[in-house]
Amino acid sequence: MSTVVGQKPRMPIVARTGRDEHEALRIGDTVFSERDLLAAATSVAERIRGAARVAVWAEPTPETVLAVLGCLIGGVTVVPVPPDSGRAELRHILADSGAQAWLGSAPDSHAGAGLPELPVIPVRRHSRSYHVLPQPHPDSAAMIVYTSGTTGAPKGVVHSHRAIAADLDALADAWAWTSEDVLVHGLPLFHVHGLVLGILGPLRRGGRVVHTVRPDPKAYAAAAGTMYFGVPTVWSRVVADPESAAALSGARLLISGSAPLPVPVFDGLRALTGLAPVERYGMSETLITISTRADGERRPGWVGMAVAGVQTRLRDEAGAEVPADGESIGRLQVRGATLFSGYLNNPEATAESFTEDGWFNTGDIAILDAEGFHRIVGRESTDLIKSGGYRVGAGEVETVLLGHPGVAEAAVIGVPDADLGQRIVGCVVAREGLLSADGGELIDFVAAELSVHKRPREIWVLDALPRNAMGKVQKAQLVRPR
Q1: Among the listed ranges 134-143, 353-362, 392-401, which one has the minimum average pLDDT value?
Q2: Domain range spanning residue 457?
């Protein structure tokens, strides 16, 4: 395959603006102009061309960004590896993905862990190449993102160049995202939120991204962005720092995802910044499929409408249509241009995740109203509680619990019960001095807001809720306090 010296490099997924000296990326203290970013990434691409898949130890560094972009330019499938991976998880990801090398650096904390001996290809941030490489086929695999493994070994989710581009373009439509926007975030670079949306998104628009390395409220405030990304934990910390929150009032959009945003945090952001946050929904397999819009309504606890190119529907346990009445709970199914190509090396799991008529079963349960707005109730496996003959969504109860002034965090689970089938239990982290020792008043509080059958039968007051790197509560790890 030929290259042409002297022509401006092209990039799959990411578009050029032609503003060569325009600042495209700032990560920590390192800054790249658009020209230098593309030239440095093309230099990486030239060193790895011909490889099938490479692993990237996805720490929040310039080398990680260059490695990922280099793979996209060179048509090599990139496997972002979470830096907090345990030994068993890491062995599985490397073996399952068939990664042929580490690109950038290799982990040094798992010596003797029985990992494959892979070569390490360095990423040099000062190298440049101005060749133009042939663009990968749109349907070729761009990236393999591994799931969190909550229901077994992590599965490799394969995304094509076409799917990633379609999703970023749909979000540009929903969020009125342009080359004039400056996106600020400090999210991890191994998953959809921080990497695909947070790095590839602004580069596809021809705008600028400022990665703060860590999602610190003061770093966010100092960055002077027009758009900010955060998970609920980040936004909770911003609300707890009114001075930093006030500094975000000049932004255009505050966008929250990866986990439900508590209504008190939504209200706090709106009060401190004057901006109602944008909430959106997606998962590793679908990218972002539902979002509130920059020019539309934003309701606390609701994630908006299907984005361009995506369709959604709700089905009950028998496969029948669930009415879009704003109350009925159903299994959320989606189809459209943003969906994954399949699970790597696992055709059985791929087939099982789709209906006979081609819709992807998200595993989430949701509510849909007549205007097409969605409310995510939770995971069917953990958040659909069958108690006393009723079907109760944990997310609905969690929202009410978080509205109590004494509750800082909340998670609702169902535990086996000989009489009810499942007993609703509210697990809360208390705000000091605002809740009794056993939290018993929360039972009546929920019963006054929702149907009585949705009230918790028990309250567990905990020191903290177990969460993963993206801020999602790990409900399987919740246990009764001693």
Answers
A1: 392-401
A2: 388-477
Please determine, for residue 10, whether its predicted confidence score (pLDDT) is greater than 50: no
Pair (36, 112) in one structural domain: yes
**Helix (H) or strand (E) segment spanning residue 268:** helix 263-273
Is residue 205 in a domain? Answer: yes
Q: Are residues 45 and 128 both part of a single domain?
A: yes
Helix (H) or strand (E) holding 460, with range, is strand 458-462
Query: If pLDDT is split at 50, 70 and 90, which confidence band does 3 have?
Result: very low
* Exposed e or buried b per residue across 139-148, where buried means at least 16 C-beta atoms within 10 angstroms of its C-beta: eebbbbbbbb
End-to-end CA distance of the chain: 66
Task: Give the strand order in the sheet containing 227-230.
Answer: 30-33, 23-27, 208-211, 182-185, 227-230, 253-256, 278-283, 287-291, 305-306
φ, ψ (nearest 5 deg) of residue 77: -70, 130
Shared domain check, 333 and 221: yes
Is 360 within a domain? yes
Strand ranges inside 196-347, DSSP E: 208-211, 227-230, 253-256, 278-283, 287-291, 305-306, 310-315, 329-336, 342-343
The stretch 184-201 carries a mean pLDDT of 96
Summarize pLDDT for 274-332 with one digit per residue, the tens: 999 999 999 999 999 999 999 999 999 899 999 999 999 999 989 999 999 998 999 99
Taking alpha carbons only, the member of 292, 263, 8 closest to residue 176 is 292
Taking residues 209-215, what's their average pLDDT?
Answer: 96
Q: Provide the token pair at 4.
A: 């042409």
| pLDDT of res. 253 | 98
5 part of a folded domain: no
**Judgement on whether residues 260 and 144 belong to the same structural domain of the protein:** no
CA-CA distance, 78 to 158, in Å (whole number)?
10
Asked if residue 10 belongs to a domain, the reply is no
User: What's this model's pTM, rounded to 2 decimal places?
Assistant: 0.85
Report the CATH number at residue 438. 3.30.300.30
Q: Which token pair is 20?
A: 């060569």
Read off the CATH number of the domain in which 306 is found. 3.40.50.12780
Q: Clarify whether residues 124 and 260 are in a common domain.
A: no
- For residues 369 and 392, state if they share a domain: no
| Claim to verify: residue 440 and residue 399 sit in the same structural domain | yes
Inter-residue long-range contacts of 344-349, CB under 8 Å, 24+ positions, other chains counted: 344/96, 344/97, 344/144, 344/155, 344/156, 344/157, 344/158, 345/96, 345/156, 346/155, 346/156, 349/155
Which DSSP helix (H) or strand (E) runs through 395? helix 394-402
pLDDT band at 12 (very low <50, low <70, confident <90, very high): low
Confidence of residue 482 (pLDDT cuts 50, 70, 90): confident
pLDDT at 150: 55
Q: Let me know the angle formed at the C-alpha of 235 by 233 and 237, rounded to the nearest 5 degrees.
A: 70
